Structure formats: C-alpha cells, structure tokens
Amino acid sequence: MDIDRYIERIFSLKREDKAAFEEAALVAFEYQSHENAVYAAYIKALGVSPSQIDSIEKIPFLPISFFKSHDVICDGKTPNVTFLSSGTTGMTPSRHLVYDPSIYTNSYMKGWEYHYGNIENYTVYALLPSYLERDGSSLITMAEGFISRSRSLHSGFFLYEHDVLYHNLIRSIENGEKILLLGVSFALLDFVEKYNVKLPADAVVMETGGMKGRRREMIRPELHSILCKGFGTDVIHSEYGMTEMLSQAYSKGNGIYESVPWLGIRLRDMNDPLSLLEKNSTARGAINVIDLANIYSCSFIATEDIGRLHIDDTFEVLGRMSSSQMRGCNLMVADIM
C-alpha cells in the first residue's frame, strides 16, 4: 500500500463525495485487517473474514477499550509519540501509539482550516490547566501547533493566570484581533466567575469538555448559557476529539457537530453493538468513528459516547454509556492476544 498517496487522497476528499470516502475506508480496512495484529485478531474472534468486507457497512469497529489493554498499532511500526488519555485517578489510561505525528499535524491543521479558515489569522489563547499539568496530551499538541502558527506574538498558554488572560483579551479586542480562546470547561467557568468581557462577534470561544473532577458536571445548555453571558457571545463552540483519534469534529453552537471529510460518524445499536442504525435525528445510539487519518493504528473505533446522527451527517453527543451498557458491549471483547 502506498501510504503517502493514501494520505494525500484522504486530505483531498470532498464532504459530498461519499463514494470516495467509502473507497478510502475500504483501503484502510484492507491494510489494517492484515497489518494491525490486534485488529486482525479481533476480526477473527468475531468470525469475520476480511475478504467478506465489500462495503463500509460491513466493517467491524474495534471497541475503544482495546486502547487501554493492547498496543493498537500496525506491525513493524515503532511509535514516535504516545498520547495518553486524562482518565480518572486510578483508572488505566488509553494509549494511542502514533507512528507518524505529521499526519496528526496535517489533520488538525487542515481540519481547523476546513471549518474556520487560516489559524495564522487568529490570536490563540489556550486555557488548558488540567492538560498542561500532565504528559501525553494530544489536545496540548494541537494547541501548541495552533499557537506556533499564529502570527500573533501574544498567542500562548495560560495555566491559572486569569488576570493576564483578561488583560490580553482586552488588548486583542482593542486592536481588532481575531480571537480563539480554547479552554477546558471548568477553567472557562472559573474565568467568567471572576471576569466578564464582551468579545467581538467573530471571536471563537471553544470548550473542549470535561470538568476533570474540579467542578460539578452540568449539561451543555447550562454550561454554554453561563459562558455566553460571561464572554458576551451568542454561541459557544465545541471540539469533539479523543486520545484514540487523529481527527476532530467541531460544533459552532447548539451542540451540533460537523466532521471533516476524512472523519465519518456511524451509530450502533446499544443493545446489539454489531448492528448500525440508520441516520435519524431522533434515534439514539453509541457512536462509531471512521478516522481515515488513523491509518497506522485503527481507523474504525467503537466509542463509549452516545449520540444522534442527522441526515446531513451532522451529529450530537448526548453523553456517555452507563457501566451496564458498556459491560453489554464488552461481551464482544475477548482476550484475543
């Protein structure tokens, strides 16, 4: 397989070209079903032969829990970067072994440009204390990439220096700069409890989710309402990504996410994890992702998130599967290796 040509193809995909996406997904499956020992063993445990897979609907999705217990990487590839999930204290973190970090860089940079334009035009403020305080965060890597490519000398990280961030935001407003404020939910809430600013209409306030045990969990409408009031914005943006992926989806408000052309979303039946659901704005299911950029790991991941998938391929994230639901899905996870 010519990986360089494959990567060039996926980053040239058009959102409306479903046939090209399916063709690329089948190419990724053919490669990973033979070169990724963990995925190959899982497929075999399901009683599926790779030769039987002739459409995207038949591709098996690897439960995301395998990233905690196995090295999910293609044979002969030594990881150059290892991303680790934050997780809860005492829990085993997920490990994403990344052979070619440049693919991740391409993915998040092209993904941002696809949704928001050139990152060079933004002053980037990253309020990500819980991520900065640990190693192996893919989100910090992405934020570092944004900051390094920003033309503003004021772009940077802020740990707990809310007063410095406040004065920088005021300076950016006065100078007419385009603002990206990327922050973990609890840190953004901490900030608006102390400061209120009126950001310009083109500012992007993006929460990356998670209270990380620092504050009580709250539903997205409540969180976004507080943040909108604090920042003087009409909407709060959100990012959907995870340690095990190399691509992101973004919401520009109201919790409706749009993927990049090389990232596909499917829903599976929570009572029958091997069955996919039809697109339906009211149906709830567990989220499966097809991340074509994740070529040296596994592009087909069954997550533990619950969501809705709309006819236009936008989607919502409604929460996480319960312990009992996860146990039900994990019945298909055998000790394969």
Topology record:
Layout (H helix, E strand, L loop, with lengths): L2 H8 L7 H18 L1 H9 L16 E2 L2 H4 L11 E4 L10 E4 L2 H16 L5 E6 L1 H4 L5 H12 L6 E2 L4 H13 L3 E6 L1 H10 L9 E4 L12 H12 L5 E4 L8 E3 L5 E3 L3 E6 L11 E12 L8 E10 L5 E6 L2 H7 L8
Parallel strand pairs: 1-13, 4-5, 4-6, 6-7, 7-8
Antiparallel strand pairs: 2-3, 8-9, 9-10, 11-12, 12-13, 13-14
Helix pairs in contact: 2-3, 9-10
Give the strand tally.
14
Strand order of the largest sheet: 5-4-6-7-8-9-10
CATH class of the largest domain: Mainly Beta
- Strand fraction equals 15-25%
Radius of gyration: 20 Å
**Can you give the mean pLDDT?**
92
What count of structural domains?
2
| Number of alpha- plus pi-helical segments | 11
The CATH architecture category of the largest domain equals Roll
CATH topology of the largest domain: Luciferase, domain 3
Main β-sheet description: 7 strands, mixed
Overall outline: globular
Outline the low-pLDDT stretches: 327-332
- At the fourth CATH level, what is the homologous superfamily of the largest domain? Luciferase, Domain 3
Helix fraction, binned, reads: 25-40%
